[in-house]
Design brief:
The protein is α+β, with helices and mostly antiparallel strands. It has a single domain, classed as Lipoprotein localisation LolA/LolB/LppX (outer membrane lipoprotein receptor (LolB), chain A), CATH 2.50.20.10. Helix content is about 15%, strand content about 45%. It has three helices and twelve strands, in the order H-E-E-E-E-E-E-H-E-E-E-E-E-E-H. A twelve-stranded mixed beta sheet has the order 7-8-9-10-11-1-2-3-4-5-6-12.
Length: about 240
């Protein structure tokens, strides 16, 4: 499929990638120990002229009840910070800067029922960022009734607290996943093409995180309420 000179299709594909990656990474605020994880995200199956847009850098900071994800790419940047009960999300795409502030309490009220996948632990191992990981298949029925499979590469060497690992909105309930995922792979369809999104950690630093990391400025951003943000996403069909 040729996406060249088709801006709308290009935006649709990139948003599909971004949304999928965000869904995969948000549950990871469940680690019990302070750490910083750097990851690379790549997308296979894109036309050559758009391959670079499927590449992203991700940095995750975790310390106690505080969590921050910074995702950056050629098309858009996103930061989301959980500081205690407070949540701040900021996005920048093609010159547009917007975000919202909310609380975990408010998000919990609007939360839809999450789906619990069937987890299949395999004998396959891989070393990622210096940690031995086990390949875990998360199987769940999609909207079309077909079974979707997401691959997680999980290490039990990093301590986690799974009781909060429930996901947001339509994300998966991964509360039964044993260990911390340092790698993830999923297939996503968009505009008649099938893409494989791969996220792999490149560096893990266990130890104290500078508390100022969880302070984020909203200056220059068009801020809205969480409800307004959800309505905006709904109107965009995303």
């Amino acid at each position: 499929m040729n996406l060249k000179n088709n801006t709308n299709q290009h935006k649709t594909v990139m948003k599909k990638i971004f949304t999928a990656v965000l869904a995969l990474t948000m549950f990871s605020l469940t680690a019990q120990q302070a750490m910083t994880v750097k990851s690379k995200i790549t997308t296979e199956g894109l036309p050559a002229e758009y391959a670079a847009y499927g590449e992203m850098d991700l940095v995750t900071y975790i310390s106690g009840d505080n969590f921050r994800n910074d995702m950056s790419s050629m098309m858009m940047n996103n930061s989301i910070v959980y500081k205690g009960n407070d949540v701040t999300s900021l996005s920048e795409s093609m010159g547009n800067k917007f975000g919202y502030k909310t609380t975990l309490t408010e998000m919990e009220k609007e939360k839809k029922t999450t789906k619990k996948p069937k987890l299949e632990y395999t004998a396959e191992k891989k070393t990622i960022a210096g940690y031995e990981c086990t390949k875990v298949l998360a199987k769940i029925a999609g909207k079309d009734g077909k079974e979707n499979v997401i691959v997680f590469w999980v290490t039990e060497a990093l301590k986690v607290d799974s009781k909060h690992r429930k996901g947001n909105d339509n994300e998966m309930d991964l509360s039964e996943l044993k260990g911390y995922p340092l790698g993830m792979e999923m297939t996503q369809a968009a505009n008649g093409m099938e893409m494989k999104i791969i996220m792999m950690a490149t560096e893990v630093t266990v130890g104290a995180v500078d508390p100022t990391v969880f302070d984020i400025s909203t200056e220059g951003y068009n801020m809205m309420s969480y409800t307004e943000f959800k309505n905006m996403q709904k109107n965009k069909g995303n």
